[in-house]
Every structure is written in C-alpha cells, then in structure tokens.
Amino acid sequence: MPLDETSRLRILTAPGGPFPLTERVVDGIRLEMFDRDPRTMRDAFLATLAHGDRPAVVYGDERWTYAEQWDIVVALAHALRDDLGVVKGDHVGIAMRNYPEFVFAFWALELLGAVVVPFNGWLKTPELADLVAEARPTVLFADRERIALLRDVDLAASGVRRVVGVRCAANDGSFVDFADLLTGVGAFVEPPACTISPDDPSTLLFTSGTTGRPKGAVHTHRNHTASLLNKYIRAVRIIPSTDGGAPRVAPPAPSVKLVTFPFFHVAGLNTLYTAAYSGHALVLMYKWDAEEALRLIEAEGANELAGPPFVIQTFLAAAATTTRDLGSLRILGMGGSAAPVRLITQIADRFGTAVTPRTGYGMTETTSGVVSISAAEFAAHPDSVGRPLPTAEVALLGEDGQVLGQGEEGEIAIRGPQVVSGYYRMPDSEEFRDGWFRTGDLGRIDEDGLIYIVGRLKDIVIRGGENINCAEVEAALNAHPDVVEAAAFGAPHPTLGEELVAIVRVHDASTVEPDELRSFLADRLAGFKVPARIALSRSMLPRTPSGKIVKRDIAQQMQVAGILQPAGGG
C-alpha cells in the first residue's frame, strides 16, 4: 500500500534519515531546517556534475547535457571574474527572456558568490531603468529587446560597468557579446575558488508590485537551499524492502519539465535550480503558446508543466481537441494566483488519473512555495492550497499579532529558513516581525490542517461600513459557466465611500449580459456584495509575470472609459 505524504515525510526526516532536521538560530530566531547538503547554491551546482550526459537544457533545436552545461558555466565564471572583474558580493543583473544563457549566467554567478538580480522582462524603459538604478549591478546581462529599451539610459550612472549582450544580431560596440565572452577562455575543469556561507546573499528579486512600488527581497543561500530541499524531498522515492528490512530511498526519477514561469519570477528561478539539482531536463519556450506547448510535450516527452492558472486554462482548452500524443505528461502544477475549482475537474476529464494536479502557496519573500497540495487530497479539497512543507511554519494572526485558533480567519504569517529577513534598503519593513513574514493574505486552517486563502487583507472594499471581500465575489463570478476570469475592486462613491465594481472576461461565444451576472450573484451573495456595475471583456485581464491580476491597471482603464462613474447617491 502506498505511503501517504505524512508518513513519507516522517520516514525521510527521521534522525539518521536522508533529510534529518536540526535547529539553528538565524538573526536571533530559532528555526528548524534540514541538516544536510547542499548548504549553498554553489554546492547545488557542483552536485550537477554527477548527472553527466543527461539532458539539461532544451531550447528549440539547441540542447545541452549536464556535462556540456558544466563546461559553459565554469568557463563563464572564469571569464566574469578575470575579464569583467566580478567578485563575491557584486550585484549582477539579468534582463532577458527564458533563454539558455539565463541558466548559464545564473549558475556562473552563484559559483562566484555574486548576487544575481533578475529584472522583470515585461517592464518598460522607465520602470527597468529605475530598478537598475536601485540595484546598481556592476554587470548587466541583457537580450536584444532589453538592450533596445535601455539604449538611451545612462547605465554607468547606475553603477553598470559592462553590458553582456545575449542573442543580439549586431553589436554596436556598447556591449560585449555573450559568445565572445567565452571565446578564448580555455577549458577549465574546476570553478574559480570561492568561500560562500549559507548566510551570504544569493539573489535580489523585486516583488511584482501589484499594490505599489516593487520591493527587493534579499535571498540568502540558506533561503534558496531550504526551498530546493523542500521540493527535492517531495520527489525522492521510497522503495519498500522485499525482505522485511528498512525501505530504500532513491533520488527522483529523471523528468522533463516544460518551463512557463519566467526565470525572473521566484517560481521560475526555483524550477531552474531544483530541476538541475535533481537531474531533470528543462525545456524552454520563447513565450507561452498553448499549441507550441502541445508540440513540445509530444516532441520532448515532457512529464511536467506548471504555470499560473490562466496558463493551465489555455493549455487544457488546446489539449481538449489536439491529436498530439500527450501520454508523457504526469503533473500539471498551478501557482502564482488562486486556481478556479473547476480546473481540477477539467484535468480529470481530459487526462483521468494519468495526470496529477498540484498547487501550492508562496511568494517572493518565502522563496517560492511553502505550502502544497496534490493528487487525491487536492481533488477532495480543490479550494485549499494544502499543508506546510517541512521546515515551514504557518500561523494565522489577528490584528493584535496574536496567533488565532483553528477555524478563525486571520492574516497568514510564515516563518522558516525559506523566509527572507527583509527588503533591500528597508530595514524597518513592517511585514517582518519576530521572524514572521506577514503575507497580507487572509486565510483559515481547518481541523485537518489544510490551509485556505480567503482574500487579501488590503483587498477589502468598505461599502457604507460593510466590508466586502473581493476574493469571495470573484470566486462567485468564476462559478458562472461563461466566465473565464474576474476582478472585483472598489470605486469611489459620493455617499457610500466606496462601492464594488467588477470586470469579467467571458468566453468568445458568450452572450451573457452584466445584469444576468448580477442576478447570478444575487442568488449566492448578500445584496451589498453584488457589484454595482460589471464590465465585460473578451481579452485577458492585465497580469504580473506571476499571473496575478493587476487591479490598478484595470481600474485606470475603467476610469478612462467612464465605467467607474458612480451610478447614483446610494
């Protein structure tokens, strides 16, 4: 009989087991963490040498084995140190699409103890220039599109000494080409020497900034390796003994992962290094395209695909009518935002039990997911995000900061070695207190320990003194068969203070009208929770790279269109 996840983890984390736990004091806070390698990201890369000729990275017709990746990364690390002067502690920016060069540059910088700063590839010139100025990288890797965006920006004033161009058709002399950087470096067997501590900074990732200016989360090597091991432990195999002895633990079976999260997002970066440590192959895409994803799954034998719910939605729509062979697919993971409950049914309808649905909960500040749920438990509780992973503590806090009891709703707070200690140049951030990171999300925990997200602490509309949880209204709208996605938020009102409005994306063939949707909600929600006005759209709503709907952009668009004008006095 297969072991349940709780039993698996008990065996793996037992004293003397392959994932023993210990306690360490970090920044004055006692934390439980894994007592095993890797303890730095440099160590994580060094372990990849054992994967030899397994496929490591695939992009179009280009492919590299782990041995070939090792040669490129080690040579690049020497070139960065010797030719461009990168040393331990330097900030080095990466601004590009999910090209293979992102993978190679990331690992080379981790070998040197530099701080990798991935920049959001969707930013416009002023936004990107502002973040470069804040991070002050000594070297900047950039692809053709990002180089064009920054062409008229004084990068030297932001501390940038050299730009490394990636996949650029022509070089006007303003940058050193990635390929030329490796020319003449020579064949190095060993990486440059560097002593790195688990508490040294590893990356600086800027948050999506859905409610304000992006903040820089500083991740240590300990943060990343804790996150890596929490994913790795889920994938290792426990093989029962045939003679009554102790079970045997085996590494994860080789897998092929189709990457949809951008590497400048923490979920994408987490996929990059967890896959490498596990010996999995990464299949990269220039941009998300559902039909191309189907082709790649068939051509490369991809086993896993993960992305924001809208990616999974478009994939399932394409998969419903495809004639391609998708028999290799085993896992569909969702993250970045709440997954509509109906997606679980759609996965089962299309793939039966051959494909396992999976989701979780985490963010930049927690170094990706710290809560997870999959398989039968996910099917039974499709509105839950799961249970904490090993070493992660989750609590619900009241307004006074006190821990709430089971069943009560409160702000989700997370503590553990995956949680960053604070934001870059913001030593007094109110989100970090006593080792806890206060997420701003509202949640509850049921009697079985499953965690549910019920809304955002600041995603509340106060209409005439009544609180309206926008997530609740959005969930009700998403239950309508014509609705693809919805966003509810507050609009100014002369007497009520605020009233609720919503924009709803519907299927192309839909004939539903706003009043029909309001009637649909009126049967399910209290009257004050029904939006005063609903706008319809057939286009994807504006999103961050992690898949979160950007309500401020929608509000601005609706304001311009006159949709947010008050309907009356109340």
Report on this model:
It is a single chain. The chain is α/β, with parallel strands linked by helices. The chain has three domains: 31-38 and 221-455, ANL, N-terminal domain (Rossmann fold, 3-Layer(aba) Sandwich), CATH 3.40.50.12780; 63-196, Rossmann fold (3-Layer(aba) Sandwich); 459-560, ANL, C-terminal domain (GMP Synthetase, Chain A, domain 3), CATH 3.30.300.30. It has 16 helices and 30 strands. A nine-stranded mixed beta sheet has the order 4-3-15-14-16-17-18-19-20, with helices on both faces. β3 and β4 form a beta hairpin. The chain is globular and about 70 Å long. The model has no long low-confidence stretch (mean pLDDT 90).
- How would you describe the shape? globular
Structural class: alpha/beta
Number of domains: 3
- Main β-sheet, in a few words? 9 strands, mixed
CATH architecture of the largest domain: 3-Layer(aba) Sandwich
What does the average pLDDT come to?
Answer: 90
Number of helices: 16
Radius of gyration: 24 Å
Strand element count: 30
Reading off the top of the CATH hierarchy, the class of the largest domain is best stated as: Alpha Beta
Q: And the CATH topology of the largest domain? A: Rossmann fold
Instruction: For the record, give the distance between the C-alpha atoms at the N and C termini, rounded to a whole number.
Output: 62 Å
State the low-pLDDT regions, or none.
none
